From TrEMBL:
The gene is pcrA. Its EC number is 5.6.2.4. It catalyses: Couples ATP hydrolysis with the unwinding of duplex DNA by translocating in the 3'-5' direction; ATP + H2O = ADP + phosphate + H(+). Belongs to the helicase family. UvrD subfamily. One of its GO terms (biological process) is response to radiation. Residues 10-289 form the UvrD-like helicase ATP-binding domain. This is ATP-dependent DNA helicase UvrD1. Residues 290-559 form the UvrD-like helicase C-terminal domain. CDD domains: DEXQc_UvrD, SF1_C_UvrD.
Amino acid sequence: MAEADQHILEGLNERQIEAVSTLEGPVLVVAGAGSGKTRVLTRRIAYLLEQGVNPSEILAITFTNKAAREMVERVHHLVGVEAAKALWISTFHSACSRILRVHPELGRLRSGFTIYDADDARRLVERSIRALELDTKRFPTRAVMAKISSAKADLITPREMALDAHGAYDRLVATVYEAYEAALIANNAVDFDNLVNSVVTGLREHAGVREYYQRRFRYLLVDEYQDTNRAQNELIGLLAEPENNIFVVGDSDQSIYGFRGADLGNIIGFANRLPTTRTIALEQNYRSTNAILELANTLITRNAVRHDKTLWSELGQGVSPLYFKAQDDRQEAEFVVSQALTVLSDGYSLRDVAVIYRTNAQSRVLEEELSKAGVPYRVVGGVRFYDRREIRDMLAYLRILVNPDDDVALSRVINTPHRGIGAGTQEQLASAARTRNVSMLHALELFSTEELGLSSRAAKALTHFVEMIDYLRELIHEEAPAPVVLDEVMTRTEYLEMINEEDPLTAEGRLENLAELRRVAAEADSLEAFLEQTALFSAIDAELDDSSMTLMTVHMAKGLEFPIVFVVGLEEGIFPHMRSLTTPAEIEEERRLLYVAVTRAKQRLLLSSARRRSFQGNVIYNPESRFIGDLPEGVYRRQESLDYQPMPEHESTKKRANEPAPYRVGDRVFHTRYGEGEVRAIRERSVDREVVVYFDAAGERVFFGSMTKLKLV
Ligand SMILES: Nc1ncnc2c1ncn2[C@@H]1O[C@H](COP(=O)(O)OP(=O)(O)OP(=O)(O)O)[C@@H](O)[C@H]1O
Ligand SMILES: [Mg+2]
């Protein structure tokens, strides 16, 4: 064996070496958590390069951008920076968007197309529902979107959906789907699902392009294969032909994206579809102590639908997992804080600690307790940077400049800041554009405002707006750098003034965010590259700070590992989640989620639940999670505190709410921002009070808790 080989194969067991060095034909690695699947995949890339494979012939797919970047780094480490640069290591979404940038025709797109994220897509679906004059109560956007998205995961077209429809409702959903797809094309945009789907359908239709990519990507590698959907699997299958040098790793016990259309059949049927497959199983776990693995193994064997495998490790027995049953969510958070501080004194750092929960909403109480104790933390996937309003507004402006057909972006900012283009005018413009089959901005450029049937008052504002956009677009033609364009947008649109005037309290933070955006823009090669990067940014990408503790959902934690792991909120209705209690299959997916969570832990695992917690403004009592009941006492230690004084915070808000409200329904009130209005309803909630006011100028608003800004008139 050459010396370089040894270096690359060093620190791998025999079966891992087999997985790394079997280069020709399909290879399937099925193995439990922490058995080195990702390590093997990374080493295999290095090995391929070492065997003389050209970096540009390799396409490796990971599940998050963060995982992709980590892998680039590891490969960089193993084979040097030049080779690492030429490789395609990316998520399905970024690989497909890269292909579409070069071949937009695959998705019936034109260059400069926009990638719509979930929020953009929602707006467009809603608009399609309205355009078809369907009742938005019977066709709630979210429900319709879910149906469309799951159809797309299975590569089902609107036509096929209509043919398969059982009953009128489903047929109408298919019509919305069709209208939505048409609107995407008209806006020169793709949503996340279509990134993959359009490449698959496009490659099927365009033999030339298909053969090009098949020749180009001679070696394909996929991590977390158990979570691929049908469309993603088709893509891989298509690209791998005819040589089928395709290497996939996965663990069916960690399949947790069923709700998004992931298909376990992909991994189970892999060897059947490709009969020359070499299947390799790994059993040794290199991540966790045996105490943690025992708990994980006992838990997952309760699932009926699975292949039996048992993980073991040579890392010793270790500390037995601890389960703490708190009186309420605040005490649970205090437990996390105090335990985290204890492990610090054992020589760990906060970076070694992760708190994992089932739903994002659970982070709030934890965050409050951590801030109170002065413990630095980072929430992965909370209100994400790119979801903040000022960031989305700026990006919408930039998108219009690059893609004037992007009506969703245009609608977002046409009247932000306020420039007298109200909802009525926008509706009028949208429908005039629709009948002329052009985008809203083009309608304004091609037709006079009279022709479009717009009022003369609106006409002036609109002309002004178009002039401004034209001016800014000049910058794009001159290929001005992204931060320059961004600066011009902020000043020309008077956006900064708006922020300053709107709310002095939050202005500072928002200006900081915009400065941060400018910094990111400065690092991008071009404005297009910048927009693409922001569209594909996933929550997990937030850089992990060296000295803070990490808070995140189970879905975000997949593939990661931490010395100390807390799994909180082990209650019926939370974990398992209340939306997943109906079928055994749903419960099994919840159990796999918990399995993923606990197998992130290397040395210490701490589980907890609360008898009582505040939830969406109410106090709820949940029984202990059935998953705790799955575990025999032997695999964990149990702790409960009975002498705890519950919920001081909640009591105080309650008291405030119990004081009589200073006004009654029907009273006239004044608000500094909205002016005068009438109190329409006062609702006492267990922890707070809700006041509904109908303002003469601003319409209905709802206020919570302290209402210092409302004065009786
Ligand atoms: N042969 C080995 N010797 C020593 N450490 C190893 C070996 N194989 C893997 N490891 C280490 O074990 C840990 C788990 O490996 P890795 O993350 O690749 O597992 P995985 O199978 O991808 O897990 P998951 O299913 O959670 O994604 C890592 O820290 C890795 O570096
Ligand atoms: Mg992995």
